[in-house]
Amino acid sequence: xxxxxxxxxxxxxxxxxxxQLIQDPSKWCKGAMQKGDSFCINGALFAVGTPNxxxxxxxxxxxxxxxxxxLPRGFIPEPFWFLRKALRADKLISHCLDQEIxxxxxxxxxxDHELTSHSQVMELFEEALRLLSLENSSNSHELEFAY
Length: 147
Fold this sequence. Notes:
Elements: H1 8-21, E1 34-35, E2 38-39, H2 41-47, H3 78-87, H4 90-95, H5 99-102, H6 107-112, H7 118-138
Antiparallel strand pairs: 1-2
């Protein structure tokens, strides 16, 4: 069984590096992990070193490209766990153009939605980093149950 141990220092570095990679809107894309020198959220995180193991069959969602939404912490790479938590945060939801976007539990589907903007993707990274910082300041893993 695959398990990803919390490592907030490494997770912070991966989130910041992935965000930096697609900071320029021309370096961000939809519909593919990578198009030339542009990346989607997932592609950016994998490009900067986020683990990308072959998923066990029982972890795969209805869309074979993504992990199931109900997997608890430890069963998906930590940067994606924090990004998923950020997708559920009220701050991000209030800025979405379409309520449907707020319902996504999958980072890749959020990235690829026709109404998702580059600024929303950057805001998602910021919210994930805020949640990570919140966890660091409390020195616990309370966020696992926060949303």
